[in-house]
Amino acid sequence: MQTCRIGLVSISDRAANGVYQDQGIPALETWLRRALVSPFTLETRLVPDEQPLIEQTLSELVDEMGCHLVLTTGGTGPARRDVTPDATRAIADREMPGFGEQMRQISLHFVPTAILSRQMGAIRKQALILNLPGQPRAIKETLEGVKDGQGAVLVPGIFASIPYCIQLLEGPYVDTDPAIVASFRPKSARRPAEE
Ligand SMILES: Nc1ncnc2c1ncn2[C@@H]1O[C@H](COP(=O)(O)OP(=O)(O)OP(=O)(O)O)[C@@H](O)[C@H]1O
Ligand SMILES: Nc1nc2c(c(=O)[nH]1)N[C@H]1C(S)=C(S)[C@@H](COP(=O)(O)O)O[C@H]1N2
């Protein structure tokens, strides 16, 4: 089975300058190790909120490291130094507006300020790039979605759509643990064993 290469980028002035310890990469990594059942490798980067540096990091992960998926965390808000969506848009080939819409919809179930995030999704070459908010707990919230007390899905997390998107970009077949996040694919796109 082809391995999915995933880039993780934590964008935080204070974490990058050692004011506090970065919790973004550990939160992303912990969630992915819980949710993915197919093989993947990780490339991690911690950068301050500097647009040229973010653009350079995203381009390197996609063009040189060959990532199929890049998840960023932080710098999506309205503050002057929040420039992650601007950097993503600057290096994108195409935008994927549904991811930002879905994340804000999910986040409204957790915080009333969800609409302050300008987070977006985009495609560059073979890679899907997604901006998650900087608050470490927002990572699980947006990837996994909203569930009731019994674990039934109320609003699907964005990861439900990621494996099929990577498949449409001619990347590897990504499988998730349905107890964490059920990935959706049309029947014609499923592997024979799954039908
Ligand atoms: N990488 C991180 N590690 C730990 N906590 C973080 C991280 N990024 C953000 N946070 C927490 O989430 C909050 C909101 O994140 P946001 O991206 O808006 O950060 P910020 O206030 O711009 O500051 P900074 O860029 O210095 O992290 C932060 O104030 C901080 O408490
Ligand atoms: N799930 C979730 N989404 C969230 C938040 C959060 O705590 N959880 N914080 C909101 C707030 S207060 C802001 S300002 C924006 C931008 O956050 P960022 O600059 O850390 O990316 O994300 C919003 N979306």
UniProtKB/TrEMBL annotation:
CDD domains: MogA_MoaB
The enzyme's E.C. designation: 2.7.7.75
Cited function: Catalyzes the adenylation of molybdopterin as part of the biosynthesis of the molybdenum-cofactor.
Sequence ranges assigned to domain MoaB/Mog in this UniProt record: 7-153
SUPFAM superfamilies (UniProt xref): Molybdenum cofactor biosynthesis proteins (SSF53218)
Catalytic activity line of the entry: molybdopterin + ATP + H(+) = adenylyl-molybdopterin + diphosphate
Family: Belongs to the MoaB/Mog family.
Pfam assignment, any one: MoCF_biosynth
Organism ancestry: Bacteria, Pseudomonadati, Pseudomonadota, Gammaproteobacteria, Enterobacterales
Pathway the protein contributes to: Cofactor biosynthesis; molybdopterin biosynthesis
UniProt cross-references to PROSITE patterns, sorted A to Z: MOCF_BIOSYNTHESIS_1 (PS01078)
UniProt xrefs under Gene3D superfamilies: MoaB/Mog-like domain
NCBIfam families: molyb_syn, PRK09417.1
Enzyme class, UniProt record, top EC level: transferase
Record key words, sorted: ATP-binding, Molybdenum cofactor biosynthesis, Nucleotide-binding, Nucleotidyltransferase, Transferase
SMART domains: MoCF_biosynth
The protein's name in its UniProt record: Molybdopterin adenylyltransferase
GO biological process: Mo-molybdopterin cofactor biosynthetic process
Listed GO MF terms: ATP binding; molybdopterin adenylyltransferase activity
